[in-house]
Write a structure and sequence with these properties.
single chain, Chitinase A, domain 3, about 110 residues, mainly beta, 1 helix, about 25% strand
């Protein structure tokens, strides 16, 4: 992945812009991608394109992503692996995410 630039820490309440791709365990196609904001499976690609804006610590994203972003620096690209309790839960999402699946995410902060 890629280290970020030193700077102020990312804390709850800060608005961040990220580029991301999300996969579930065992899947080669992203479940979600900031480039398309669609749940239609596509082949993995580079983290280029549209950013997703959210306020950290406000429950706007999966808990795993909120936690991961607070450990990152601007410009950093990281991979995140999360247990179901920090992603889509033990039940998953009917029709999209099977129950008890781990979540993988590659994201970069701009």
């Amino acid at each position: 992945m890629k280290p970020g630039m030193p700077g102020d820490p990312i804390v709850d309440g800060k608005v961040v812009y990220i580029i991301y791709q999300v996969w579930t365990e065992g899947s080669d196609a992203p479940l979600d991608d900031s480039r398309t904001h669609s749940r239609v499976g596509k082949k993995s690609g580079s983290l280029e394109g549209s950013t997703f804006r959210f306020k950290v610590g406000c429950g706007a994203v999966l808990p795993a992503l909120d936690i991961a972003v607070k450990t990152m620096q601007i410009g950093e690209i990281a991979k995140v692996l999360a247990e179901p309790d920090y992603a889509y839960g033990k039940l998953g999402i009917i029709g999209s995410v099977p129950p008890r699946k781990y979540f993988k995410c590659a994201n970069g902060i701009r």
